[in-house]
Amino acid sequence: HPHTNLEGNYTRVNEFLLAALSPSWQSQAALFVVFLLVYTATLAGNTLIMLTVTSDPRLSTPMYFLLGNLSFLDLCYSTVTAPKMLMDFLVEKRSISFDACMAQLFFLHFVGAAEMFLLTIMAYDRYVAICKPLHYPNIMNRQLCSWLVAASWTGGFIHSTVQTILTMRLPFCGPNKVDNFFCDVPPVIKLACTDTYVIELLMVSNSGLISSSCFVILVTSYATILVRIRSPEGRRKALNVCASHLTVVTLFFGPCIFIYARPFSTFSVDKLVSVLYNIITPMLNPLIYTLRNKDVKSAMRKLRSRETISGGKVDM
């Protein structure tokens, strides 16, 4: 039910209808089960990493401090869209109120941009650790790490505030069908009853610039690391560390650049790409980082044996 907005003489839509991920009821039910498992795995995996990093004194280094923060961001990121999406699998009418839609859009960009900045900081951390090992403790001290994490949150907040304000100020008078399973800037902007060309350019230059420039910085820093290392043994160790980081970075940035760094023409694969970086990537990050990391694995074993001892027979 639209209501009249006093600023203009148009009526604004009260709610948006979200797209279904699949047409039939059977496949919706199957997808519900799959995504419920994925979301549960995301929550469990990232919580476990946060617990491990905070409980083991050997993991109180900048790298693990940043990894713990990444896990927290992944947890928040999937929670912005997954619970609502899971509920929508079970209902006939997938609606979201205008305010809830704007809130979802805000937190999506807030956490997403913060994660981009954090991944860039993690690349810088590895660069200093591998290329300037003697100066590492002085450069990447706890204070600087805390400042950098705070800066990535602040950057995300500013980016998201700009995106959300630009979107909210547009007139929405119907149609109200969002061509995705959650509210994001590209599909929502398409529904505005005005020419959004300038806004789209602003958004693309904003989101696209952030994702593309962070990605370039990341790849450059990892390339520099590999070029700077002369010994085959050192290069193999560096490759091992960088490979897991680059996997995460590619999984996260690839889809973001694909969706945000072009003016908003819709491709049929957009929904699929959205599922990848919204739901799947946050689940994969803990796996990628822990499977390739001896310290985290041994800390997790210690945590598990401590749980077993303290809880009698209770094993995690």
Could you characterize what this model shows?
Belongs to the G-protein coupled receptor 1 family. This is Olfactory receptor. The chain crosses the membrane at residues 29-51, 63-82, 102-124, 144-162, 209-227, 239-260, 272-291. This protein is mainly α. The chain has one domain (23-310): Rhodopsin 7-helix transmembrane proteins (Rhopdopsin 7-helix transmembrane proteins), CATH 1.20.1070.10. Helix content is 72%, strand content 4%. The protein has helices at residues 25-55, 62-89, 98-131, 136-139, 142-168, 185-189, 197-228, 232-260, 270-291, 294-310, and strands at residues 3-4, 11-12, 15-18, 95-97, 177-178. It has a 3-stranded mixed beta sheet with strand order 4-3-5. Strands 1-2 form a two-stranded antiparallel ribbon. A hairpin with a 6-residue loop joins β1 and β2 (11-12). α2 runs antiparallel to α3, α2 (62-89) runs antiparallel to α9 and α3 (98-131) packs antiparallel against α8. The longest helix has 34 residues, at 98-131.
What characteristics describe this protein?
316 residues; mainly alpha; Rhopdopsin 7-helix transmembrane proteins; 3-stranded mixed β-sheet; two-stranded antiparallel sheet; 10 helices; 5 strands; 72% helix; disordered N terminus; transducer; olfaction; Olfact_rcpt; G-protein coupled receptor
